[in-house]
Design a protein that fits this description.
The chain is an all-alpha fold and 94 residues long. The chain contains 3 helices and no strands. Helix 2 packs across helix 3. The radius of gyration is 33 Å and the shape is rod-shaped.
């Protein structure tokens, strides 16, 4: 149970055990009784900023698989094309 106190100031001593309070803590360090609101002690939490690759992987994971399959098929078709139709030697007798 939080003990109300005036104008956002923390009391000097714990109302439960009487030990001195440290204003940077949410609770009394002697008895662990809360003495202030959590919002007054903890900073605001902001969501993580993602780069473009992470955003695509998180929000549309199937796009990454499709892109990988497309690049794999393109490279496979290119390799197959070179195997079936070797490069022209330019008519030079060899």
């Amino acid at each position: 149970m939080l003990v109300p106190h005036g104008h956002g100031q923390s009391p000097q001593c714990c109302q439960y055990c009487g030990q001195p309070l440290q204003p940077r803590f949410y609770f009394c360090t002697a008895c662990a009784m809360p003495h202030t609101d959590v919002e007054a002690v903890l900073p605001e939490v902001r969501p993580a900023q993602w780069d473009d690759e992470t955003r695509v992987r998180k929000l549309a994971p199937e796009v990454w698989r499709l892109f990988s399959a497309y690049v794999g098929a393109l490279l496979g078709a290119t390799l197959l094309g070179f195997l079936i139709h070797p490069a022209d030697d330019g008519g030079v007798p060899g």
